Amino acid sequence: MAIGFIGLGNLGQAIATRLTQMGEELVVYNRTKSKVENLGYEIVDTPKDILKKCDVVFLCLFDSPAVDNILNGENGLLCDEVKGKTIIDLSTNHYEDVLKFHEQVEKVGGKYLENPVFGSVAPALIGALTLVASGKEEVFNEVKPLLEKFGKEIFFLEKPSAATKMKLINNLCLGSFMATIAECTSLAQDCDIDKSKALDILGVGGGTSLVLNAKKQKLIDEDFSAHFSNDAINKDLHLLQDLAYSMQKPLYSAAMPKELFSKMKMMGKGDEDFSSIYQLFKS
């Protein structure tokens, strides 16, 4: 049976491409149909229509309001047809909203797996994403063979919302590393050190990281077409600060990266790849 896929932005398209390469047939819904008309997938008019053709539906959306709209909006997934079917939510949600999604889907007889994605377009295309899932273990085990088609490292944290919280914690590392690497690159250039050579040295020195490996060429070429956008990292760091606030816990190292990415958004660069933060430091 075909797999449903809702949300074909940069990451969604990459995961959908990988699933297709692995032999899966997809039926898709995207809010803006014109953006997916030339991708070769069967397209439906509403989220609800996917349930007529698929037992498993992936969601890959920007934030919790977008997920809520797909679930609860007009002709959404929360209907009689969802009974016995599985929704795998790859979105990075608010840690409180995702609890509601678990409850809402299960209340109407569906199965919900919270499954945020660690990584972006390039690892998605080669099946090298990291996935962290939360929900009922039997649901996770049912769909794990499907997750293995685009995920290399797959973890299970049973308690609902744990996967979402872990994704936000991970993105503190991501945002902090990217800001530091960008500033180091600019500083090296100001010292008349070739940018490419500086990145080579950082890559075997203190900058060694998946972040540098993934963004090195973008920094060299200054090609900031989005794989993971400034808008997305800015949103995630705000959610992380909400989480820390709810725990009455200070979060020292998140404040500066969050403000730097907020500045990029304010400058109208929210749609650019988050490596474009380099532009804030470049002389």
Short structural summary:
Helices cover 48% and strands 12% of the residues. It is α/β, with parallel strands linked by helices and 283 residues long. Helix 1 links the parallel strand 1 and strand 2 (26-29).
Mind explaining what this structure looks like?
With 283 residues, the protein is α/β, with parallel strands linked by helices. It has two domains: 3-158, 3-Layer(aba) Sandwich (Rossmann fold); 164-281, N-(1-d-carboxylethyl)-l-norvaline Dehydrogenase, domain 2 (Orthogonal Bundle). The protein has twelve helices and nine strands. The strands form two sheets. Strands 3-2-1-4-5-6 form a six-stranded parallel beta sheet, with helices on both faces. Helix 4 (97-107) links the parallel strand 5 and strand 6. Helix 7 (162-190) packs across helix 10. The longest helix is centred in the middle third of the chain and has 29 residues, at 162-190. The termini are far apart. Residues 162-280 form the 3-hydroxyisobutyrate dehydrogenase-like NAD-binding domain. Keywords: NAD, Oxidoreductase. This is NAD(P)-dependent oxidoreductase.
